[in-house]
Amino acid sequence: MDRITSLLLFALLATPAAVPAEPVPAMPHEQPALHALAHAPSETELRATITKLVGFGTRHTLSDTTSATRGIGAARRWVKSRFETISRECGGCIEVVTPSQVFSGKRIPQATEVMDVAAIKRGKRDPDRVIVMTGHLDSRVTDVMNATSDAPGANDDASGVAALIEAARLLSKQDNDATLVFVALSGEEQGLYGGKALADYAVAHGWQVEAQLNNDIVGNSQGQNGVIDNTHVRVFSEGTKSNETAAQADYRRYHGGEVDSPSRNLARYIDRLADSYLPDFRVRMVYRTDRYSRGGDQVPFLEAGFPAVRVTEAHENYTRQHQDLRSGRTDQDRGVHYGDTIDGIDFRYLARVTALNAITMAALSRAPAPPTGVDSKGALATDTTLSWHKMPGAAGYRVHWRDATAAQWQNQRAVGDVDHAVLQDVVIDDWFFGVSSVSADGYESPVVFPGYAGSFERSPAAAASSAGR
Ligand SMILES: [Zn+2]
To answer: From the CA of 216, how far away is ligand 1's center (Å)?
Structure first.
């Protein structure tokens, strides 16, 4: 034995055996099941749904409800039957319900029943926690009160309905811990009534809505100015909660949180999932509730105190939205095709948007609930202390921090199965903080910013304000 070998042997023998290792903190990791969803949406299925929906002529909220072939009634019965077929194919895993309310208003002159069609796939371990995907079934032409002219609504919003039916079909074949709900809303163009009916239904049934993904206008990849982009989708999120009280707003103005509502951190979560699982597709986060001066069915959910985002294509073509079917005849618009017809849909693009939704719903439903009771302390100290309540199903937690001007979380640390953590030499003044929960199999919740401003829980203030309406 030469000298080096004997030294090595000595070193090996001298190594102390079986020192108890520190437990490895739960960490998020790559999920093959989410990679598989990236290419799962079928363009054939998406095309079949939009073709069918366009075939009902108009799906205006005030259109015929008794015809078997034309109008909103025939369209919603078809969606219901489609959900029932998906449920049969998964051994009855889906329950189909039709939340409805009678509304009247400026765009509904005579009291009319507005009916949504919802597919519910109950969670195995956490059924009261609910992830919702919506699109709207109703369509319109130039005159919002015209309930008889052909209004194909292929992109606005048969594209969203096709995406949620396809997501339901794909996710019906997989396990989910939280409940998944897929809803074709109605009454959107008349004043977001179907979103209101669904938000009321959620409150009445005690749903803890962790996220609503509202998909409205998600199938076109060519903007009105000719720009073509099939690699981006916009995710709109409010910065501060729609229903914060004056006292909560005062606190938030001083301590921060103006860009950290749960809806905004949901948008960050979706953005990260696209980075991880959709190599050719990017989320463009927009720090707004919706497009400028425009609205959508995420708004009634926000007003009810639930986190919600709007998903919309990157470049819209306004000659196709809310237009009578016609060709331009003036010197300015000769040859322009007006109307929301199926030839404006890019099915590959729509499949990508569908994949992003399906991945997000799967990830959220398999992760533990986001931590509650998140708090931060550290004034006049060189360390920052974060604390939170432990969540069922969480095997550990991660703390996150970022520059106060950064759009995305930059620094993370897995801290194990504890309810607080001290970040040494991280000064509270200079960063924004958050906490996520992580399951034993590596699914992570969205990040929760401390205090009321960032909490994913439906707040008492929210409950009070919606009860008062
Ligand atoms: Zn729409």
So the answer is: 5
Cα(340) to centroid(ligand 1), Å? 11
CA of 411 from ligand 1 middle (Å) equals 37
At 68, list the tokens.
């078997």
Band of residue 68 on the pLDDT scale cut at 50, 70, 90: very high
Q: Compute φ and ψ for 227, nearest 5 degrees.
A: -65, 135
359, burial (CB in 10 Å: exposed 0-12, middle 13-18, buried 19+) = buried
For residue range 200-214, list pLDDT tens digits in order.
Answer: 999 999 999 999 999
What is the distance in A from the centroid of ligand 1 to the CA of 432?
Answer: 35
Helices (H), 21-142: 32-38, 43-54, 72-89
Ligand 1 centroid–CA 276 distance in Å is 29
CA of 384 to the centre of ligand 1 (A): 44
The pLDDT value given to residue 468: 39
Look at residue 440 and tell me whether its pLDDT is greater than 80.
yes
Residues sharing a CB contact under 8 Å with residue 329, sequence separation 6 or more, in sequence order: none
Decide: 50 and 184 in contact? Cβ < 8 Å.
no
Opening angle at CA 254, ends 457 and 469, nearest 5: 45
